[in-house]
Amino acid sequence: MTTTEPVNILMVDDQPAKLLTYEAILDDLGEHLIKATSGREALEHLLKTDIAIVLMDVSMPEIDGFELAEIIRQHPRYQKTAIIFISAVRLTELDRLKGYESGAVDYIPVPVIPEILRAKVSVFADLYRKTRQLEALNHDLEQRVEERTAEAQANVMRLRESEERIKVILQNTSAVIYLIDARGHCLQVNRGFEQVFGVTNDEARGQSIYALLPPETSAVWRASHQQVMAERVSNEFEEEIVSPEGIRTYTSIKTPLFDAAGKPSGIVSISTDITERKQAEDERAELLRREHDARLEAEEAIQIRDDFLSVAAHELKTPVTSLRATAQVIARKLQKGSQSAPQWLSDGLRVIDQQSERLTRLIGQLLDVSHLDREQRLGERAPTDLVAIAERLVAVFGARTTRHTLVFSGDERLVAAVDPVAIEQVLSNLIDNAIKYSPEGGRIDVEARLDDHEQVCLSVRDCGIGIPPEKRGDIFERFYQAHADDHRSGLGLGLFISRQIAELHGGSIRAEFPPDGGARFVVTLPVEASVAASIAPKTPA
After folding, report:
1. Which residue among 351, 378, 383, 461 has the highest number of C-beta atoms inside a 10 angstrom radius?
2. Range with the poorest average pLDDT among 30-34, 336-340, 363-367, 534-538
3. Cα–Cα distance between 497 and 303 in angstroms, integer?
4. Alpha-carbon distance values, 215 to 8, 192, 220, 420 (Å)
């Protein structure tokens, strides 16, 4: 109820004229006026409506004012309702006392003075409104107190449950956890602490943590605690802890605690054992170090090999160059002479010149296997026509016989898709072998094609004496000197170098032995997918 909300005022009198008079006097107050002409009617209103003030006549038939007041006071809702008696009969002090005992709060004699009646009714109406407001406030306060009490009880229960959960976690984790005050005295330690240092929580509580630890660990922890308290922030430390089990490595997170004034009041520490992880890291670092050392040793060995091959190639080229130059000088002098040179001498000089060129190429292959100046030499040599390469090689090696015929098949454009140096080097060795092991002459087939895996397949086949089945094995690993009277009883350095060159360029080599005789050597070299697509044969639509 607000301070301006009207209240209900019940006026009881058996004379309607008086009721109209009271109504006229009180109308200016703005309250809600209810009239009753008998005690029974007044009780009916009291049962249906909340009444703030009862204004009644003492002398009424059936139920007089005293009896009505007693009946009203017996109802729990109206035990404190203001009852004002109005009486035209002169009352004695005993009558007044009886009225007060019945529950009246005031008397107004007749004739009624309007101002006095309005003043008294106004006071009791305001008192009723304030009482109701106070009751509403009290009710709201009680409700809030009940809600706050229930919330506090729930918070206490949650706190207890949280404490229990934290206690379970602390007691069952393998981490070392402790709580100390600003002086370093233990407030609580967990089971992990107990297991590492052999001190229970009850034994540690109230004791200086530094007195419970081995001297080495005590010094380490004292320093970290001083740092955390001084910096007033959490810090992570890697510490070696000396325990009955030996020296273990821990990573510790130490956090300062503060009191209500913001002053550091203690530290909580959580330490996790990382000994095994550190050992694994150390072992891995040692393994990486050994691998690095082994790689350096391998690189050093390769460098020594390359240096040796470089020197060897230089030393080999010098006499070969001199030999070839000498043969060329003899040939020129013979051409200037008056007499023609014998055929056998001319043929011999040509063979010396051709084989000198061949030996020079072999030295270059040796350098290519060792990776020496490979990029520079590749840059100096432009792609060569595959057929021209094969024909020139047959001409060089065929000086010993003119009975060999070269037959080429496939796509000549494939030479642009792979390393031309690799093709010439491999072909040089394979055609040399084909001529060597077909002394009676015959056909030498050279084929270049693109296989299903978009790789260049280069094959060389001869129709010679072949290789006996019992001597085939891994022919690319064997280093025997072939003799004219025992062809292919063993194989020379050429096939071994061919395999090295093929693998150096990311390819491979294999040998096949057709049933009708001879041998076929197939070299596979990788090619870029874009190049392969541009040279692949088109499928008819």
Report:
1. 461
2. 534-538
3. 19
4. 87, 20, 9, 75
In this prediction, residue 484 carries a pLDDT of: 37
H-only helix segments in 173-254: 191-197, 201-204, 209-212, 215-231
135-182 confidence digits (pLDDT tens): 888 888 989 998 888 888 888 887 777 656 656 666 667 788 888 999
Closest CA to 177 of 209, 147, 141, 130: 209
**CATH class of this structure's domain 8-139:** alpha beta
Q: Alpha-carbon distance 440 to 517, whole Å? A: 13
Local structure of 251: helix, strand or coil:
strand
Mean pLDDT of 350-360: 71
CA-CA distances (angstroms) from residue 460 to 75, 266, 392, 440? 128, 87, 15, 17
Topology of domain 284-380 in CATH is Helix Hairpins (1.10.287)
Answer yes or no: are the C-beta atoms of 512 and 519 closer than 8 Å: yes
* pTM for this model (two decimals): 0.35
Q: What are the extents of the domains in the chain?
A: 8-139, 173-273, 284-380, 382-535
CATH of 173-273, one of 3.30.450.20, 3.20.20.80, 3.30.310.40, 3.30.1330.90: 3.30.450.20
Return the residue matching tokens 């060159």: 501
Geometric angle at alpha carbon 178, from 177 and 180, rounded to 5°: 160
Identify the pLDDT of residue 487.
Answer: 40
* 9-46 pLDDT, tens digit each: 999 998 898 899 889 999 988 899 999 998 889 888 88
